[in-house]
Amino acid sequence: MTDNIVTSAVIIGGGIFGVSTGLQLARRGIGVTIVNDGPPANGASGRSLSWLNSARMRSEAYHRLRMAGIDRYRTLSARFPNANWLRFEGGLTWDADDESNGVDAAYRHEVSLGYDTRHLAAEDIAAATPGVDARAITPQGAIFNPGEGWVDLPTLIGLLLEEFAALGGRLVTDQGAARVVIEGGRAVGAETATGSRFLADAIVLATGPAVPRMAGEAGQAIGDGTPVALLVQTRPLAHSLRAVLNTPRVAIRPAPGNTFSLDADWAADEGVTIRKDGSHEIDEAVVEALLAEASKVMEGNPRLEIASIGVGGKPIPGDGEPVVGAIKAIPGYYVAFSHSGATLGLIVGELLAYEIATSRQHPMLATFRPERFLSQ
């Protein structure tokens, strides 16, 4: 083994970042083992709104990375044009009717970037995208981004794992929490709660909201802004809504089987209590209020019923920007930690695998490296 040649890798985490990176490495002929505490997609990837977008304002580098991420999904969509788990039918967003409303500024910013965007009044919504109750649109109007879409991450992860297995990749599940093994100042493997050890040339930490804590155990600081998230999945409902909705009180994403995924920051803040042992309690009244808010913005104001509720950390770095690449102080140690995991899922796996396999830094990741937190 040398510092320049990687023939084996262990990835801790069976979400979209871990599985995408593992598959890309396997495609390059590297032997890969993915280790997960439970079944694949049992963490943040299983409770993500999974809106594919680069809407609103962010750094230029982050916008470019997100657009590359969307491009990879379009390539995938061309392979599976009839998939019910990956759709590009637009995104519609509007703000509250108060001084915080930023629709006009966001629209002008998106126009300046060449991002496909339309500023619509309430009466114009039906002609652009179906299934929305126009009475819910605030006077400032809404932004419709026809190039946006959504993905069902558990389905995608399952698809990627099929190819991963065909290429000889190894998936080890239900191992409990794992840790990165560091010997002689170098990351050399992963050890699970069951005592199993998996050694390799490169170790990737892709454990979603647990990344900052786990990196901290090795003395490496990664800024953490992770909040608690709550995602409600509805029972099947025949409805014409096709776009992802982001509104002042609820976000709604169509899902396979005529179901819908719902979330809102206020619902997580008010409806979830985290106990000292790490378990959680959900306020049923808050969940019902979230369902009511969703009904208000959907045409016909349908009655929505709960199928399942997901609760857990939503991975968000402290400065909001992705954290991807090598930890320079510990050779062989790589991390992938970001919000917008769905949008970035395929491109982050591709670029991180490139860096691991070639020992070269990719310019698109230049501003997202872990060491930027050392000076904070």
UniProtKB/TrEMBL annotation:
Domain FAD dependent oxidoreductase: 9-354
High-level lineage: Bacteria, Pseudomonadati, Pseudomonadota, Alphaproteobacteria, Hyphomicrobiales
Pfam families: DAO
UniProt name for this protein: FAD-binding oxidoreductase
Record flagged with keyword Oxidoreductase: yes
Keywords noted in UniProt: Oxidoreductase, Plasmid
Domain of life: Bacteria
UniProt cross-references to SUPFAM superfamilies, sorted A to Z: FAD/NAD(P)-binding domain (SSF51905)
